[in-house]
User: Which sequence fits this backbone?
């Protein structure tokens, strides 16, 4: 149904729209069945903070749909492979870029991993498990540092925190994930 209303909507966004519609219909049915004094439970559903959350979620979903339609990440992978960049850097950079741009795990895994797996299969010098560990750790790091990571945005907004202050605490954790991925890439590479 949503494909006719909003052309170009990706399947995930279409499912989320269907779920949101069902949620709204369900809440209306519950609200109508409540006594007048019990309806105050629903008073905070329509608030400024709720509208900000819905606006943020909508923006992230629209951005993800546009990114999928543009096919930016596969094109970046092809350009990097043609430019004689070392394969390990490509395998690290593409998931990081996809995670940074999309802000969700499905984004970096779904967009970058088919390309990464293709590169791993094409280069016999790479250890497959080590390359996948490197790719995942870098994609995860990109997702956690993404300014469009929905959990990050909602948390900063809810607690009225400063982005810079939150990044100061987040950066050491992300750096440890990156260093672990690099260490495992080299360790697993020496075992073959």
Assistant:
């Amino acid at each position: 149904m949503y494909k006719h209303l909003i052309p170009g909507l990706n399947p995930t966004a279409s499912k989320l729209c269907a779920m949101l519609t069902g949620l709204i219909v369900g809440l209306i049915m519950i609200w109508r069945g409540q006594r007048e004094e019990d309806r105050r439970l629903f008073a905070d559903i329509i608030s400024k903070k709720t509208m900000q959350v819905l606006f943020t979620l909508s923006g992230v979903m629209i951005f993800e749909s546009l990114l999928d339609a543009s096919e930016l990440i596969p094109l970046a992978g092809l350009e990097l492979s043609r430019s004689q960049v070392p394969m390990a850097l490509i395998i690290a950079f593409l998931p990081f870029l996809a995670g940074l741009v999309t802000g969700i795990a499905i984004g970096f895994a779904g967009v970058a991993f088919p390309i990464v797996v293709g590169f791993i299969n094409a280069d016999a010098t790479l250890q497959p498990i080590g390359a996948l560990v490197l790719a995942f750790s870098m994609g995860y790091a990109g997702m956690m540092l993404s300014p469009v990571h929905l959990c990050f945005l909602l948390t900063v907004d809810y607690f009225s925190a400063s982005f810079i202050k939150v990044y100061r605490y987040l950066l050491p954790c992300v750096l440890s994930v990156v260093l672990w991925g690099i260490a495992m890439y080299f360790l697993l590479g020496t075992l073959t």
